[in-house]
C-alpha cells in the first residue's frame, strides 16, 4: 500500500493456452535455438514482466492513463506502479497450482513440461521467389497448447475504481492479448478459464480482517471472492479496443500437408517417408488433464507465409510497383511491411495482422501416397527415387485471422484503401482454391475452398 491508497483491488486469473507459447530466456544452448523461462522446479512459468508488458500495451490502446496504473520513470521524476502482478505458475494434471516442491512429482503434465523441448517447431524464412533463404533455418522451443497457468493482479487506489479495475481485468479476454513471442503467427494465445476478484477498503474493520485472511500463495483459495462472467468480460474488452476478425471454414480439395512430423497418422504398417506435422497438446475435461501426443495442427506461421506473399503481389499490382531485378529490390519493400512487421539490422516493428493456429483432433483421414521422381530426358523413373507421403483429408478446418486496426494510424486514406483491397483479394484467393497452404502445391496439395 502506498501513501493514501487504502483500497485493494485483487484478481486471480486462470488461463489455458490455445496455442504454444514461447517466452524465451534470450539464451541458446548446444541443442536448441532458445530456452523457455522456467521456475525453480524446472517447470515453465510466465514472468510478471511479460504479463505487465502485454497488459500495458492494451491499456494504452484503450486510451487509459498509464501513469495512474503502471507508474513512470523519467529523468525528471518517477512514480511507483500501483499495479502489482505475480508470476504465472503452472497447473498439474489435477488442475492444482504448483509451487516449490522438495521431492519428485509423478505427474504426466509436469513430466512433459519439465522436458527440454515440450514442443519444438522448425521454421524457415522464405524469399521473394518462394524458396528458403540461405541461413534462415531455425527452431522454436515452446510450452504446449492446453497448459494452464494462474497469476494474480493487485491494484491499490485511494478511491473506489471498480469500473476501471474491471476494464483492466477484461483486457485479458481480448483477442489481441498474446503472451510471449511470435504472436502474429498465432503463438501465445489463451482462453481465460476463471477470474476471481475482490475489493477491500482498509479503513473498515471488517475488511481489514478479510485482508489479513487473503492467502499469500496461489495454491490457496481466495475467501469471499466474486467469480466474474467470462462472456461479459469479452464483450467489455471488445468495446474498449476494436478488432477485425475473419474466421473461415475451409475444405481441402485434394488433401493438405505441413511437413516435419514424426508419427504416422494413417495406421499403415510401414510409415510414410514424409509425415504431417503434429505436436503434444493437453486436453482438459472436468478439470482433469489428458496428454495428446500427436495432435494435427495447421500452424499460423504456415498461413501467414503464404498469405503475406500473395498479399504483396496484389498490393504491388494495385499500386503498380513492378519488380526490377536489381540489388535494391527486397520482399515487403512496400507499405505491406507496416501491416506484417519487419526486423532487420537497423530497425524493427511489430505486425498488426494475427494468424491463429488451427487444430484438428478428430474426424480426419490420413492417406499415404506413393510417388516417383521422373527423369526429364527419358521419361522413366529415377533409380532409388521412390518415396511416400501422408496427406490429410477432412470435411473442414477453421482458419482465423485478426487484424489490429491500429495499423492504419499515420497512414493516408489511399494507402489504407489499397491495403484493405489487397487483403480482401488475398482472402478471396484462399477461399476459392487459388492460394495453397503447406507443401505439395505443384501437385495439387494444399488448395482449400470455403464451406458455406
UniProtKB/TrEMBL annotation:
InterPro entries: CRISPR_Csm3_endoribonuclease (IPR052216), RAMP_III_fam (IPR005537). Keywords: Antiviral defense. It comes from the Bacteria. Pfam families: RAMPs. Residues 14-190, 258-448 form the CRISPR type III-associated protein domain. This is RAMP superfamily CRISPR-associated protein. It comes from Alteromonas aquimaris.
Amino acid at each position: 500500500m502506498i501513501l493514501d491508497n487504502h483500497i485493494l483491488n485483487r484478481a486471480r486469473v486462470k488461463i489455458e493456452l490455445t496455442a504454444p507459447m514461447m517466452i524465451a530466456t534470450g539464451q541458446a544452448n548446444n541443442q536448441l535455438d532458445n530456452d523457455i523461462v522456467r521456475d525453480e522446479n524446472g517447470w515453465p512459468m510466465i514472468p510478471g514482466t511479460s504479463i505487465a508488458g502485454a497488459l500495458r500495451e492494451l491499456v494504452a490502446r484503450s486510451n487509459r492513463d498509464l501513469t495512474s496504473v503502471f507508474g513512470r520513470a523519467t529523468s525528471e521524476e518517477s512514480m511507483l506502479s500501483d499495479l502489482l502482478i505475480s508470476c504465472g505458475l503452472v497447473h498439474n494434471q489435477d488442475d492444482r497450482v504448483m509451487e516449490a516442491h522438495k521431492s519428485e512429482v509423478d505427474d504426466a503434465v509436469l513430466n512433459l513440461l519439465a522436458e527440454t523441448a515440450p514442443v519444438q517447431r522448425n521454421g524457415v524464412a522464405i524469399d521473394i521467389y518462394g524458396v528458403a533463404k540461405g541461413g534462415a533455418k531455425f527452431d522454436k522451443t515452446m510450452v504446449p497448447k492446453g497448459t494452464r497457468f494462474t497469476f494474480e493482479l493487485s491494484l491499490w487506489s485511494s478511491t473506489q475504481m471498480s469500473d476501471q479495475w474491471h476494464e483492466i481485468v477484461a483486457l485479458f479476454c481480448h483477442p489481441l492479448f498474446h503472451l510471449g513471442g511470435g504472436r502474429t503467427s498465432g503463438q501465445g494465445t489463451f482462453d481465460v478459464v476463471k477470474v476471481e476478484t475482490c475489493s477491500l477498503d482498509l479503513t473498515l474493520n471488517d475488511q481489514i480482517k478479510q485482508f489479513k485472511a487473503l492467502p499469500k500463495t496461489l495454491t490457496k483459495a481466495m475467501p469471499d471472492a466474486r467469480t466474474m462472467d467470462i462472456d461479459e468480460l469479452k464483450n467489455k474488452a471488445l468495446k474498449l479496443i476494436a478488432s477485425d476478425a475473419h474466421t473461415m471454414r475451409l475444405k481441402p480439395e485434394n488433401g493438405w500437408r505441413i511437413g516435419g512430423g514424426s508419427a504416422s497418422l494413417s495406421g499403415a504398417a510401414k510409415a510414410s517417408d514424409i509425415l504431417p506435422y503434429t505436436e503434444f497438446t493437453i486436453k482438459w475435461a472436468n478439470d482433469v488433464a489428458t496428454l495428446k501426443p500427436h495432435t494435427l495442427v495447421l500452424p499460423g506461421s504456415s498461413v501467414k507465409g503464404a498469405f503475406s506473399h500473395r498479399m504483396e503481389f496484389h498490393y504491388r499490382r494495385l499500386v503498380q510497383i513492378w519488380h526490377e531485378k536489381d540489388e535494391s529490390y527486397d520482399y515487403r519493400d512496400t507499405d505491406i511491411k507496416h501491416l506484417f512487421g519487419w526486423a532487420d539490422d537497423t530497425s524493427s516493428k511489430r505486425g498488426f495482422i494475427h494468424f491463429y493456429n488451427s487444430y484438428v483432433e478428430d474426424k480426419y483421414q490420413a492417406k499415404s501416397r506413393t510417388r516417383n521422381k521422373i527423369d526429364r530426358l527419358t521419361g522413366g523413373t529415377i533409380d532409388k527415387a521412390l518415396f511416400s507421403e501422408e496427406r490429410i483429408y477432412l470435411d473442414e478446418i477453421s482458419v482465423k485471422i485478426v487484424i489490429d486496426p491500429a495499423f492504419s494510424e499515420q497512414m493516408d486514406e489511399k494507402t489504407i484503401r489499397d491495403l484493405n483491397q489487397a487483403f480482401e483479394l488475398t482472402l478471396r484467393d484462399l477461399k476459392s482454391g487459388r492460394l495453397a497452404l503447406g507443401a505439395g502445391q505443384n501437385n495439387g496439395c494444399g488448395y482449400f475452398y470455403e464451406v458455406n
